[in-house]
Design goal:
By secondary structure, the protein is an alpha+beta fold. The protein contains twelve helices and 17 strands. Helix 7 (213-225) crosses helix 9 and helix 8 packs across helix 9 (251-260). The chain is flat and about 85 Å long.
Length: 417
């Protein structure tokens, strides 16, 4: 069991979650309509969870909370000095006797996110006693919402079913309005019926057979990585499919998505030599590292090359001196590093990485591979465990094993699965 309490300006809420040995979660949450401190809210959450466990005849329980004060007071490590908490401590002691075995453990707030969310929701959600609140249901979507729009029709029919019915039987869908009928008529102008097969008129008047989702998936696999597949990019695949005489509405976007997610295309892709981020200005790359600049001049008479000023730069740490002469001291002469920064920014290809993303790591030339020139340029995929602002990344393998050394963002690229 884990518990947490929340007390803020909007109200007070508590939450608790019972987790069975099989991994089933049973959440509980409540709003406190009386004034209380954060420690009182923590005790209330703990008591609510203990009572819920007693009602379900649970005999062995492990309790986790992110309040060090409550956990250590219940365990007896700390003394209860606040008079407001004495009665709560006594009540918890009586409830503990209902269990055969119970253990209280402290863990940080970062690992207590579920009950923290429940408590915060209860504290901020204002309701009255007459309001009936339905239980919250949380769904898990494996793909983005737009993936459900075209790939499969809700009635199980292919995407061209309505156009086929209009051309073949001059019939509209039952629930079609005027705009839908006008759209079907406009789309039907670009199709023709060859027997019982619907075909799309190509720009060169070549008929392209319309295929459904299942058949289009097989065509993508054969064209891209089949016996004669060349692992071409998405645009080339779309043109090749049309030359072979097939068509579907989302053909070009599907080809691009399929080629992007191909594992072999990603690990054998060209290395990226462009910088992932602009240069970061360092005021001092090492301790006591400072440069002093000064301009001497104008000097009279001029030098033989017409220069009248001497620009001197001194490294205070190494005592190294650099000097150069100029006819005129301008901003261009003094701020050469800024020109280098601007030149560098023109070659930057911004690549940002976030925790949880899949990436590929560049294989360095020092890593020997028996495959020689047939070796891939990238390895992985890896999971970004932590991303720092300076561009450093901590990666883990898919099974959660952390890599020994962090890597820079210029040595990785995103992996599409």
């Amino acid at each position: 069991m884990s518990f947490d309490g929340a007390s803020n300006a909007l109200g007070h809420g508590i939450g608790a979650v019972l987790v069975s040995p099989e991994g089933n979660h049973y959440p509980f949450t409540a709003r406190l309509n009386f004034f209380c401190t954060n420690n009182i809210a923590e005790y209330e959450a703990c008591i609510m969870g203990l009572r819920a466990a007693i009602e379900r005849n649970i005999q062995t329980l492990e309790v986790y909370g992110d309040s060090a004060l409550v956990i250590y007071q219940i365990r007896g490590d700390w003394e209860v000095r606040d008079s407001k908490l004495v009665k709560y401590s006594d009540l918890v002691a009586r409830l503990i006797k209902e269990f055969k075995e119970i253990i209280f453990n402290y863990f940080p707030r970062e690992e207590n996110q579920l009950v923290d969310t429940l408590a915060t929701l209860a504290s901020m959600f204002k309701v009255n006693r007459e309001t009936e609140i339905m239980p919250l249901q949380m769904s898990i979507y494996e793909v983005p919402a737009y993936c459900f729009s075209i790939e499969k029709e809700p009635d199980g029919q292919p995407w061209f079913h309505d156009v086929l019915e209009y051309i073949k039987n001059q019939r509209y869908p039952e629930q079609a309005n005027k705009n839908d009928k006008r759209t079907i008529r406009r789309m039907a102008a670009g199709f023709v019926l060859d027997g019982d097969i619907l075909c799309k008129k190509g720009k060169d008047q070549v008929l392209l057979r319309c295929v459904d989702t299942i058949e289009s998936r097989k065509i993508l696999e054969d064209i891209h990585e089949g016996i004669c597949g060349t692992h071409a990019n998405g645009f080339t695949m779309a043109r090749k499919i049309m030359r072979l005489g097939y068509y579907w509405l989302t053909m070009e976007s599907d080809c691009i998505s399929f080629a992007r997610k191909c594992h072999k295309c990603q690990i054998y892709g060209d290395k990226i030599h462009l910088a992932p981020s602009p240069l970061h200005v360092m005021t001092s790359p090492c301790p006591f590292s400072m440069w002093g600049m000064d301009v001497i001049g104008p000097i009279s008479p001029k030098a033989s090359n017409g220069h009248r000023f001497i620009f001197v730069v001194i490294d205070y740490f190494k005592k190294w001196i650099e000097a150069a002469s100029f006819a005129n001291v301008t901003k261009t002469a003094v701020y050469v590093p800024e020109e280098n920064d601007r030149a560098h920014e023109k070659k930057v290809r911004l690549r940002e990485f976030h925790e949880g993303e899949l990436v590929l790591r560049k294989i360095l030339p020092i890593q020997k591979d028996f495959r020689g020139k047939w070796a891939p340029n990238w390895e992985g995929p890896y999971v970004v465990k932590k991303a720092f602002s300076g561009g450093a990344l901590i990666l883990t393998e898919i099974d959660g094993k952390e890599l020994s050394n962090p890597v820079n963002s210029d040595a990785v690229k995103k992996y599409y699965a």
